[in-house]
Amino acid sequence: MTTDLSFLERKIQDRLSRLCRRFIRVAFVYLVLGLVLGVGMLAFGNDNFQFVHVHMLLIGFVLFLIYGIGYKLIPTMFFGLPKVENIGLAEAQFWLANVGLVGMLVGAVMPVGLGLDRIALLFGAVEAGAGILFVVLMGRTMKG
């Protein structure tokens, strides 16, 4: 019975490690895209994409990096081993965060009447939901 439990724990640890690596890889992709967009805006003297640039860097890079490191580091501080209350919800949070950010970025380049005031607002709420889910999962994990 204990071998099954340790096998399950190892599977969960593997899933958590993959999730952390995915968050960090996606964070680096957004870093590169945000930097390239910033250089392009400077080169062409066009600052129309400031919203996209800033959100790629702040949410895409900084926040996703915090998610990836947070899932590993925060539980380790309390339990010695990375552990998340519900790994399935953590993986759902990854997809919510990505869909929310991409939707916000797409909405930001659409015309008024569809863009920032409608589509980006909807996907911004999805992104906020992903952040709240992260806080809930880390709160449950720390409560132990």
Helix count? Answer: 4
End-to-end C-alpha gap: 23 Å
Largest sheet: none
Q: What is the number of E strands? A: 0
Q: How much is the radius of gyration in Å?
A: 18 Å
Percent of sequence in beta strands:
under 5%
Order of helices and strands: HHHH
Our count of domains comes out at 1
Flag low-confidence runs.
none
Backbone shape = elongated
Structural category is mainly alpha
| Overall pLDDT | 88
Helix content: over 70%
Commentary on this structure:
There is one protein chain. The protein is mainly alpha-helical. The chain has one domain (2-143). Helices cover 86% and strands 0% of the residues. The protein has four helices and no strands. It has helices at residues 2-44, 50-79, 87-108, 115-143. Helix 3 (87-108) packs antiparallel against helix 4 (115-143). The radius of gyration is 18 Å and the shape is elongated. The model has no long low-confidence stretch (mean pLDDT 88).
Describe the structure using short key phrases.
single chain, 144 residues, mainly alpha, 4 helices, 86% helix
What would a concise description of this structure say?
The protein is mainly alpha-helical and 144 residues long. It has four helices and no strands.
List strands and helices in order, with pairings:
Blueprint: H1 2-44, H2 50-79, H3 87-108, H4 115-143
Helix pairs in contact: 1-2, 1-3, 2-3, 2-4, 3-4
